[in-house]
Predict the 3D structure of the following.
Amino acid sequence: MAAWDSFYRQLVTLEGYKNVLKGLLNTAYIAVFGLLIGMIIGCLLATTKILPQKKWYVKALSRFTDCYVALFRGTPMVVQLLIIHFVLFPALGIQISSVIEAIIAFGLNSGAYVSEIMRGGILSVDKGQTEAGRALGFGYGKTMLKIVLPQAIKNVIPTLGNEFITLLKETSVVSFIAVVDITKAFQNIANSTYEYIIPYIVLALCYLVVVLIVTGLIKLVERRLRAGDRN
Amino acid sequence: MIEIKNVYKYFNTLKVLKGVSTEIKEGEKVVIIGPSGSGKSTLLRCMNLLEEPTYGEVWLDGKLITPPDPYLHREVIEASKTFVKLFGEALEQNPDANEEELRESVYLSIRQNDLLKRHEGRAYRKALKAIAEENYVDINLARRQMGMVFQNVNLFNNMNVLNNLIAAPVGLKLKTKEEATELAMKLLTRIGLADKVEEYPQKLSGGQRQRIAIIRSLCMEPRYMLFDEPTSALDPEMVGEVLALMKELADDGMTMVIVTHEMGFAREVATRVMFMDEGVIAEEGTPDEIFRHPKHERLKDFLSKVL
Ligand SMILES: Nc1ncnc2c1ncn2[C@@H]1O[C@H](COP(=O)(O)OP(=O)(O)O)[C@@H](O)[C@H]1O
Ligand SMILES: [Mg+2]
């Protein structure tokens, strides 16, 4: 019970829970805003692949997307994080908090994955839907916005949810650039007590609970959407 | 009037349309028949530019909806470098010839032998641009005039019946939501599906879906309706209700172009029947001429299979 006592002392008496909560919040910030940025970047990138590949600048943009995706999927997240923190931002003379750096790094990274997801989602919508929209006189943009995208988004919600969960778990590497996330918070507790079992098991449980909650929310959204048109 | 002028359509090396010319006049009901793969759908889709012709032009009510085809405009050909060169050579060789006749023969030879190159000089570009500008119409505006009904229906899956019907007139700001809903309800009532107004397409039968797709087009109050095998994907017991609605439309005076394998319907409704074979209009005429007195061997063969 000594292990438990010292964990309790760290967490409650010495107010370690404050750090844990702060860490949890940082984890949430990085995951949520990372995904938001990722969705914006992903949608833009996917657009370059979906547009009719006729004009030279569309082709160029589409090439750029290929490179972007290859780059961010072909290197480990930690390496990207380290490069942004230790190489890119110092070189550009940008000084911002590490949390924001982490958000940017995860946003850029998940942009690559989201773009592939969105592209797949848009391609999964039957071509007939676009044709019917165009035949009625909708332009390309309106057809996309009113007809294709709503269906594409519905199709990709489960995959996007998975992407979010992956992202959430992957944020545990941000301690590499000295961000105190929930992993780092528990690591600190473990290191100061030399008791590792309980802090790390509690940490795992924390991730598990958060992931289960997120999974539940995704299911709820999915069901809502499906109730919308009883597919 | 829809005018199709010398339309060719290639998919890479596959030549699907090989020079189709025809006119769809106000009030006509043109039925297009022909074996599978003969280019019927492609021709129909060229009319509203869902497919862009490789060569040739499509005109809608005197406006050009495709880019101009240089070969169809003598003034464009005569402005080309190739023409100037060939005409100069021809003049040299036959100094005594009638100049006008010579122009004509050079023009015809360029047309017949596809002699225009990619770059034909400034005068040529200018002549082409002048035609494009003079006859320009926004394709999205042109398409509002032509409703299209697809073999696989294509109701919008993310919208209920009412929203399917009012999406275009409201989304394109042609009608207020109230006006559009009123027309939609009127049409729904007419086809006896007013109680389905809140349903999503997935919940309807094939025949109901196709009839709603037809009135979705009608909600745009088009002047032409294009049908691409509207009953081919339906269960047999639902074909009748869709054909009946199309018949009603025809009786109301709608101008229609219909690709179908329903020969009975063609006979009853068509003012003109067009037989397509291997990318050309092989034969056309009144239903009587086509069904009773077919001339072409291929048409006789086709009819013996489908009748
Ligand atoms: N988008 C396309 N890409 C390539 N080939 C096509 C395309 N659309 C049609 N085709 C081909 O063109 C030919 C004619 O097609 P279609 O016009 O649909 O014939 P029909 O409607 O008379 O059966 C077919 O061989 C078909 O495979
Ligand atoms: Mg067809």
About this structure: The two ends of chain B are 31 Å apart (CA to CA). Chain B has a mean pLDDT of 95.
